[in-house]
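Q: Hi! First time doing this. I have a protein sequence and I read that you can turn it into a structure. Is that right? Here it is:
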Amino acid sequence: MCTSTYAEAVVDVKNDIELKTKGNALANYDVCKSLATQSGDKVMAYYYDEMHRLTITETTLESQVDKQLQVEIIEDEYDKALSILKKINSAGLYQLCLNRFDSVSRQYYTTKLAAKLEQAQLEKTKPEKSELE
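A: Yes, that's right. Below is the predicted 3D structure, encoded as structure tokens:
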């Protein structure tokens, strides 16, 4: 019985660490997206927005009972990380974000963003075409 209690405790600690890591990652992605937007780098902003979205999408929460607690852990860690990141020199932090956004990712997300913008433009012009008919 002690073994199962210990195993459960290990799983709880592991999950807690994973949730805290997700909170940290989300804060980092948001700050990097904001800095990229401020600098006019639309591709890098799109990349960090996608990383944020994927992190949320890939987060699987445990049972319904534990979901609120897990969300609180992520949000608390997000808030802590955000307050720390706000104290860091924005130019240095921007450089760190830029370094993580490698040239291969830039090429991939440049193409992906262009396709998304093109698709949005096509959807925007479709009603205009049908109105003309």
